[in-house]
Amino acid sequence: MTKFSDIPTLADIIRRPLVTEKATLLLENNQYTFEVDPKATKPQIKSAIEELFDVRVVSVNTLMPPRKKRRMGRFMGHRAQYKRAVVTLASGSTITLFPDV
To answer: Could you give the C-alpha distances from 39 to 2, 6, 22, 36, 56, in angstroms and in order?
Structure first.
């Protein structure tokens, strides 16, 4: 049995859009990159994107980059683990990442 609190909401699944050089180049192919919850599955990510942005998703590719070591003074640690999702939209669908002010 699963608890009701274990079920993530849409806002919990999609954390933020990632704006990197590679992600900006993927925008030309109608692909958008998001940081998502590490426990989220591809069907959950697809439904969250479709409901939040009112678009049609063709495919979802996910990856978990390796953790990087970081030093804080004499103490060693790691950066937080995160999951990245590259979402391909149907032709004609777009997401406005930077709305005009």
So the answer is: 14, 11, 24, 8, 23
Residue 74: exposure state from Cβ atoms within 10 A (0-12, 13-18, ≥19): exposed
CATH for 4-65+78-89 is: 3.30.70.330
In this structure, what DSSP letter does residue 28 have? Answer: G
Q: What is the pLDDT of residues 64-101, one digit of tens each?
A: 999 999 999 999 999 888 999 999 999 998 998 877 76
How far apart, in Å, are the Cα atoms of 89 and each of 19, 49, 95?
17, 10, 9
